[in-house]
Amino acid sequence: MMTRNTTTNDADNNDADSTEDVREVVAQLVFGSLAAQTVRAAVRLRLVELIGDKERSAAEVAAEAGALPQPMTRLLRALASLGLLREHTAGSFSVTPAGATLDPGRPDSLTSLVRMFTEPTMLRAWEHLDDSVRTGDVAFDAIFGKDFFSHLKEFPDLSAEFNTAMSQAARATAAVLPRAFDFGRFTMVTDVGGGDGTLLSAILREHPGLTGVIHDTGEGLAQAPASLERQGLTTRCSLVAGDFFRSVPEGADVYLMKSILHDWSDEQAVTILTHCREVLPPAGRVLIVEPVLPEVVNSEAADLTYLTDLNMMVNVGGRERTRADFEDVCRRAGLSLMSVTPLAQADPFCLIEATAA
């Protein structure tokens, strides 16, 4: 009797523990949007800059931020609970390595990425995710009466923030891609949709024999001249404004695209790739740098790519793709997918190499 009752109680306890675990998982997911807004507030108040590389009291930070001490203490403690700050003694805080990326003065800063992905304009469409799932329509277009990139054109400050966010997102890839592919056997790389040139600059610095072209819209290229000048690459890299839905520049033997195709539908992706194929020399390469989804979700691996896939759905009408999906759009554009190589230090990105079919 005792054994049976003990077993039953243990089972009941295990069930209770399991229920608590399940509830915690759901609660963490639901409160994720609140965490994001907490980080947004930290950036807007410049808290990491104000704390700097020393330990400071909440009262000191509040005074410099033009805030009240008690609400500031609450915010700083929330940031400490998220791993961005550390509270040493009551009301005294320092910045963790993760929190340091919220300092815009650092080369590894993620502040523009935070601002852009917590920007109300970006989040409005997420309120209508269920509508996009039902209809297949792009929620952003329905809300604002225009597509996302047309909207950016009307707001230069927001467009500049977006460009900087994309540059920050490209830094991890820029650190590994120049040595992940044998660029040295080619002569010219055109970065299609290359923005401010963060990725292409890294390639050109690593391979002095290469020249480059950044092809993007006028808005996309807005920060490129200053970026190339800082890198000392103005004589080796030219800027060509244009629309990759109409054409891409001739003359390169490598056409590179990072985080471009996922912005667009399959039909639009085929159009972009077709224009690359039309100007690709016989021994040339098309390089696509994007996440490659597995055929089946690995629920044990934390992967934000499925959330970016939904972001593409509601904001721009694009999608993340599996290897089979990339093979399909390449084939339809007259290209043959040769290989898919994970970029281990820039997870979840892969290097997809294609040639003329």
From TrEMBL:
Task: Kindly indicate whether the keyword S-adenosyl-L-methionine belongs to this entry.
Answer: yes
Q: Which domain of life is it from?
A: Bacteria
On whether Methyltransferase is a keyword of this UniProt record, the answer is yes
Could you tell me which SUPFAM superfamilies the record lists for this protein?
A: S-adenosyl-L-methionine-dependent methyltransferases (SSF53335), Winged helix' DNA-binding domain (SSF46785)
Q: Which UniProt keywords apply?
A: Methyltransferase, S-adenosyl-L-methionine, Transferase
Q: Which GO molecular function entries does the Swiss-Prot or TrEMBL record give?
A: methyltransferase activity
Gene Ontology biological process terms, A to Z: methylation
* Protein name, per record: Methyltransferase
The organism is Streptomyces rectiviolaceus
